[in-house]
Design a protein that fits this description.
The chain has about 120 residues and is mainly alpha-helical. It contains 5 helices and no strands. About 85% of the residues lie in helices and about 0% in strands. The longest helix has 22 residues. It is globular, with a radius of gyration of 14 Å.
Length: about 120
């Protein structure tokens, strides 16, 4: 297996783990959020096409790490990530497109849950 296939496989399993965490709702995803977000930041590092997602993930990671409970800022960040992720699906590999759209939708939904 070449490194591109390995990275694709790693990214797909990372997508699966993120989707599984979000499917249980925000309360369920909260415990894994920090390590999961840090993992995505590392995965996306150096990918200029996805720098917007990486930057927003860093914002979300910082907000969660600070212990601040500004749900408006968290909702905005989740919504932005949802939009960027859905858009990124258009240029993703075929095996990742549906999962990225699902993740984008889950992030947007999570933002809606925070907004109430």
């Amino acid at each position: 297996m070449d490194s591109t296939q390995s990275q694709s496989s790693q990214g797909t399993s990372q997508l699966d783990a993120t989707l599984n965490a979000l499917q249980g709702g925000l309360a369920n995803a909260a415990g894994a959020a920090g390590p999961n977000i840090a993992g995505w930041i590392k995965t996306l590092q150096g990918n200029s096409q996805l720098s917007g997602i990486s930057s927003e993930l860093q914002n979300l990671h910082d907000a969660l790490g600070s212990g601040a409970s500004d749900t408006g800022a968290l909702a905005k960040s989740l919504s932005t990530l949802g939009e960027h992720t859905t858009k990124a699906a258009d240029s993703a590999t075929p095996d990742a497109q549906a999962k990225l759209r699902e993740l984008g939708s889950a992030l947007t939904s999570a933002a809606g849950q925070l907004r109430g």
